[in-house]
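S1.2 Input.
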Amino acid sequence: MKYFPLLILAAIPAVAQKEKIAEIQRDLLLMQDQIRSVQRSQDEKLAQMQILLQQTLDTATKANTAIIALDAVMKDRMKEQERIVAAPVAGLGSKVDTMANDFAGVRESIADLSSRVGKLQNQISDIKEAVKTLSTPPPPPPAAEAPAPTVTAEALYNGALRDKSAGNADLAIEQFQNYLKLFGNTDLAPNAQYYIGEIKYLKGDYDGALMAFDTLLEKYPDNPKTSDAMLQKGRALVKAGFKAEAKQEFTSLIKKFPSHENASRAKTELAALNAPLRPAGRTTKRR
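S1.3 Output.
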């Protein structure tokens, strides 16, 4: 019986070890619950973004359908005008003037619709980038003793996109500018610079928009936003009254990206700029 106390002392570390293992298992279960909670939150956000993407795609489809319908109306009207031109020569001059005015109006409408479709496609691009970001699995929660994390490029960029979509123009510009200061060498830096110019263009600050687009084209000459920046710069020049410079910018875009969809938009803008304007009070001479 003199060995019995020794057996008790030997059993004490084993009990403590089991308690330690049980405590570790509880911590692991708690961490797994936290990870599942974060994953569910990300899945819900991803579903919401996918719904918004589908709505935007539906809007773009409707806009394209409207363009097709408008083009058909224009062709029908021109056929009707051609039939009218075959009428007696006495009314030829007046009918030709009417046809020219109608055609110019239709062309302006098509240019406006093309501009809207371009904005919708930019919004789709923004949503796709946000969906791609949300699809990335979240990192495991930090340990309790870890220091508080600083701002990340992803968080700053996504916050700026949210403010832009919500209509908080000034706050979005500020966040994009902060992104460029902190992360000016990342792949999304050209996007941030482009959105600064786009927001200023929509606000009517055409001089600020031109400065932003020029900065993008000078600092990031070859990136996915180059053709968008050239197109929007040309439109800003038109709004600011510099039509000759706008024509030059649209022509440069067509030469540099001949097969890009923005080249087609630039051609539409050039056609609108080159369309003859009917003088006010013009009268047709009788023959």
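S1.4 Remarks. Residues 141-149, 283-287 have pLDDT under 50 and may be disordered.
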